[in-house]
Amino acid sequence: MKRVAIVYGGWSSEREVSLSSGRQMAAAARESGQYDVVEIDATRELANQILDAKPDVILNGLHGPWGEDGCVQGVFEILGIPYSHSGVAASAVAMDKRKSKAVYAQNGIEIAADVKVTREFAAKEHPLPPPYVIKPIAEGSSFGVVMVRKGANAPADILMSDSWVYGDNLMAEEYIPGREITVGVMGDRALCVTEITTLREFYDFDAKYESGGSRHVVPADLPGRVTQAVMDAALKAHQALGCRGVTRSDFRYDDEKDRLVILETNTQPGMTPTSLVPEQAAHLGISFVELVSWMIEDASCPR
Predict the structure, then answer these.
(1) Which residues form the ATP-grasp domain (predicted)?
(2) 84 is annotated as an active-site residue
(3) Of 49, 105, 161, 236, which has the fewest Cβ atoms less than 10 A away?
């Protein structure tokens, strides 16, 4: 029986989400009856934790910095153990919002205008005409995202508060009005399109992970040509970045201007009870157990 190490937790800002993802995947892998499952809550001694576990395969359930940006993927490759999801280079580029946007643009996928800014500069003056969005360049789950509304007299003062923990290198990006939509990709297949609605100011961390924080419409009620365009764009983004396994790309669609803009590609999409990719897979008749088993069997490692 194949021994599978589910690596989750870690120490990034997305630890709690990762714990939920990892435990859900571990339960599904056990339910399949195909695997000997060991769970690893990642520490900075992760290499030793993995060596002690002696797995045949690693199912990566980490999210955010260190787990999703190529760092831990490098550890897996040094150890020579097949692992799920994207490799070192694809993970690193996808995690960097500006680098990934350069790849999208080179491959004909429309992006929002942006400028790189320091936290100090963005707190003193508007880097773009409002409305715009301030984002950390390499965070996930909407951590550190700040919306500056149209007509705002001053930049966001939260950027210089003592509670800010998302670094000094930020991106100011034009705000794209319209609908929040997302597409999961599984190998070489775009799954379907989900529209996300929320009563919150925007699709932030609480909207993503709190029960009732958002509503997912699967499949999204969009014109057929738009549905096809966003599915094609998600698969193109996955391939252009060099991703493998499962990813999820997020978009905004402006109905009035008929404008489809990609925001980012998640190389370690959530696997929690409210997560989008498992929902899309289920819509297509792929159970969560089957999805997790597919990710395990899809694992690989360059030699």
Answers:
(1) 101-297
(2) no
(3) 161
Per-residue pLDDT of 189-217, as tens digits, reads 999 999 999 765 554 445 444 555 579 99
- Distance (Å, rounded) from C-alpha 226 to C-alpha 77? 39
Catalytic, 175? Answer no
Domain extent, residue 156, equals 114-174
Q: How far does Cα 24 stand from its chain's mean position?
A: 17
Q: Check if 250 is active-site.
A: yes
Q: Are residues 100 and 207 in the same domain?
A: yes
Q: Which of 61, 66, 67 is nearest to 270 (CA)?
A: 61
DSSP letter for each residue of 100-149: HHHHHHHTT--B--EEEEEHHHHHHS-SSSSSEEEEETT--TTTT-EEE-
Question: How many other C-beta atoms lie within 10 A of the C-beta of residue 148?
Answer: 21
Contact call for residues 87 and 242 (beta carbons, < 8 A): yes
> How far apart are alpha carbons 92 and 88 in whole angstroms?
6
Look up 180 and say whether it is catalytic.
Answer: no
- Backbone Cα Rg of the chain: 19
- Same structural domain, 160 and 186: no
HSE-CB at 134 with a 13 A cutoff on CA atoms is 28
144 and 55 in one domain?
no
Same domain membership, residue 201 and residue 186: yes
Q: What is the pLDDT of residues 228-258, one digit of tens each?
A: 999 999 999 999 999 999 999 999 999 999 9
- From 14, 96, 139, 180, the catalytic residue: 14
Q: Same structural domain for residues 104 and 78?
A: no
Residue 299 lies in a domain: no
| Catalytic member of 139, 264, 275, 293 | 264
pLDDT of residue 201: 55
Q: Distance (Å, rounded) from C-alpha 107 to C-alpha 70? A: 22
Assigned domain for 300 exists:
no
pTM, two decimal places: 0.90
